[in-house]
Structure formats: C-alpha cells, structure tokens
Amino acid sequence: MDITSIEALEALYGRPKAPSIVKEVAEITPDYARIIETSPFAALATVGPEGLDCSPRGDEPGFVRIVDRKTLVMPDRRGNDRIDSLRNIVRDPRMALLFLIPGVGTTLRVNGRAKISAEPELLASFAVRAASPRSAIVVTVEAVYFQCARAIVRSKLWDAASQIDPDSLPTPGRILARLSDGAVGGEAYDREWPGRAAKTLW
C-alpha cells in the first residue's frame, strides 16, 4: 500500500514526542555551536532546476565558521569542479547541512538559505597553506536540531570492526575506465591520485 497523503503518513507514524519538537530552534545555541565547532565533516544538500544534490564537505574541525547565532560560513575547498551545489544555491538558496563527528553518534542538522560570496577578505580569512578558496557559502540559519544516534548505532559507522577493506570495492580509476571504455581513469589514475590529492587539498 502506497502512502499518498499527509494524513495517512501521520496515521502510520503518530505524533512526534516532546524531545523531537523541543530540540529544534531557529538559531545556533551554545550547545549546538559546540557541535559545529568540533565537526570536521558535513554533508551539504541543495536543490535546483535539475534536481537535488548532496556533497561531502570536510576540513579541520571548525571549518564551518559561526559568525553569529543566525549565520554560518563555509569555504568551498578544492573538489571536482562540477560546482553542482554552487549552481543550485545561485538559483535556489534552500539548503541543509548534516554535521558528523568521528566517534560520536549524535549528528546535527542545519536548514537554511545560502548565498555564494567571493569577497576577497573573507576568502583570505580561510586560507590554508597560502591557498584561499575560490568562494565561500554564507548560510542564514532557519532551523537547527540534533539527530539521535540510532542510525549511527545501527550502521556501526564508527566501529573499527565494521570497516571494509578498500580493495574489496571497485576503485575510482576502474569505475571511470569502465564508464568511458578506457578513455579516462584506469590503474594510472588510482596510482597517481594520492599524490595529486596531496597537492590540491586546498
């Protein structure tokens, strides 16, 4: 049976309990600030005319800067230059962040609206090894709340015993080679990637 209405959905799940409601606020509280400042990783979700995008963002803890209780700024570090997230933000400012902290089950969700800044002084303030990001994402916070640890516990995400041997999975080079009939990727791509990445992290 497909669920096709909000009424049917709410009948199936019932009403959320008090903690699920109380935890959501419209600004960054001191407790939520501590989580953001400690997180080295966030998933950024955006939406645009072509559809949805969710991309990983990571750097040293605190890489998402708290400007005030309603404003966050995140540098756009080096990536694959597809700029899918940035294209979306330019055309539709709605976005969400999901912060993770290694070893911690609780995650933090931030919903809001974003804009792209190329203001030189702002970008220079995010410089690492003399390399500044080409842009920064400025977020106006609309909702902040933590997510309980159930998903992390079920997935055993931080459990060392559950780690997968990378050699058991297809490598990026192999995937690219198969998708391009050998025109892109291959063993050389995988072999050269660590050195290439080390030179282009920032």
Please characterize this protein's 3D structure.
Pfam families: PNPOx_N (PF01243). This is Pyridoxamine 5'-phosphate oxidase. With 202 residues, this protein is of the alpha+beta class. It folds into two domains: 15-155, Roll (Pnp Oxidase, Chain A), CATH 2.30.110; 164-200, no CATH class. The chain contains eight helices and seven strands, in the order H-H-H-E-E-E-E-H-E-E-H-E-H-H-H. It has helices at residues 6-13, 18-22, 30-38, 84-91, 120-124, 150-155, 172-179, 187-200; strands spanning 41-48, 51-58, 65-68, 71-75, 94-100, 107-117, 136-147. The protein has a seven-stranded antiparallel β-sheet, covered by helices on one side. The longest helix has 14 residues, at 187-200. The chain is globular, with a radius of gyration of 20 Å. The N and C termini lie far apart (49 Å). The mean pLDDT is 96.
